[in-house]
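Section 3.1: Structural characterization of target chains.
Under the original work plan, the team committed to producing a structural model for every single-chain target entering the pipeline before any wet-lab resources were allocated. The record below documents one such target. The sequence was received from the expression subgroup and is listed exactly as submitted; it comprises 388 residues.
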Amino acid sequence: MLNFELYNPTNLIFGKNQIEKLATLLPQNAKILLAYGGGSIFKNGIYDQVMAQLKGFEVVEFGGIEPNPHFETLMKAVEIVREQKLNFILAVGGGSVIDGVKFISAAVNFTEDPMDILKKRLLFKDSNAVIPFGTILTLPATGSEMNSGAVVTIAATQEKLVLGGSALFPQFSICDPTVITSLPKRQLQNGVVDAYTHVMEQYLTYPHDALLQDRIAESILQTLVEIGPAVVENPSDYKLASNFMWCCTMALNGLLNKGVPVDWATHMIGHELTALYNIDHARTLAIIGPNLYRALFETKKEKLAQYGERVWHVDGKTIDEKATQAIEKTVEFFHIMGMRTKLSEYTPEFQKTADFIVNRFNERGWIGLGEKQNVTLEKVKEIVEMSY
């Protein structure tokens, strides 16, 4: 097992009616930017619940944060926080709103070019340099409610880039599984596949001696396989909803990656498809992931075989057979979850995608991704072309 440090200061408040605790979680002198997305919180009653808890606080609202939040939009919020001297941010939404708030938190006191936060992949470690924030989760998927990372899109250049650091953990996150009842089926499907792939990025590498980590990862995968199709059809079932929400949080709250090698190449490539074609994040992962496993088969096949045996109970006689069946089972699951797994099913402009992504990665110096840094530019081209 590799050396590691585990730090997660987020106070997670999980379960029914937990929004009622919001007022007790906020600093008494909080002057709050209330950030949300496209307005679904008005339809499902969450806005009214939140505002009831914010009586007595100074609140400035900022709506319209996009899925895959835009740098340009977030900078408008940064200016509001600066001008009105707000000292706390409350994110009410899914991963995109929470990611956006992390950028706002980091950018308010940043004195250099704010685009450098993304272009240079800066890490924020001084909690005194950022604006504190909390979250109320309305869409399980990304785990952003209990981690310190974020992804933001620069619309002007069609780039989807990351930021993070230990200062960007939410102070608290309220997670009420009943909120998923009003979510569209597509968003629930996305949430299941997003969480599933988050686990795979930290698990599907090569055999190592972190035995417990493998078992924790496999348990999340098994649970998502068991409940994923059912929660999409019956989100009002609290057993399904609560386990789904907890899987999404556990998939990316920092626990699974401790002491183990990690990949993340699927995400790095998938982000480009979202930035270029506005394909839902989870659906880009379903396009790229299986083909990355095929292209990296020789270095991943032992772990693929283990995954196939433990999660899918495949019956191949050799490692190669088990590994191949594991990939096939994964694709089948993605299809059951409503994913299309070919880029051509989303855009007619797919033919030049591989060359564009390779050139962009080359410009950034991303010449060796993955757990072994063997996802070369040539491999990126192969993976994307296999995904057409």
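The chain has a mean pLDDT of 97.
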